[in-house]
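cron nightly-structures :: item 1 of 1
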Amino acid sequence: MKHLKIGFYCFVFIALVIAPAKSLYANTSYYRALFEKDTATFIDGCRAIYLLKTNNRDLVEYDKIFDFLEESGVVPAKWKRNPDRPLTWEVISYMICKEFNIKGGVIMRAFGVRRKYAYRECMFLRLVPAQRTRRYLTGIDLLTVMSRIEKYKEAKIANQSWPP
């Protein structure tokens, strides 16, 4: 009888503690993999914008993410579907400006969103760092940008001024 009680308590412990912890870590696998990357790829940037837009933590295929971003106007149709190319600061800035409808300064308002001016606007808003030493983002750089975008979204929802 004593062994049955111990077995029952072990089962309850596993069901309530260990099983949910595994699902919790499954949702963070993207972030953990991104943290270890030396160079972030285009699919990493697309997935980051997708996560920030939808809050969907499930791993979705690249083609579905690209189609979704293309339909919503974040990624132009003329961009190539090459998920393995390195992600540049200008490309992620372009996607940020398109996703969050950042109007920008006089040049962006007159000529529309261009990668070069989107990067400058994101620097002004402190969404991307002003001093960059590399052309391509690392995984940690992309995580930092994602964090800043979350803070930007929270400030906009609360009608607070940005940059702080």
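cron nightly-structures :: done
Residues 7-25 have pLDDT under 50 and may be disordered.
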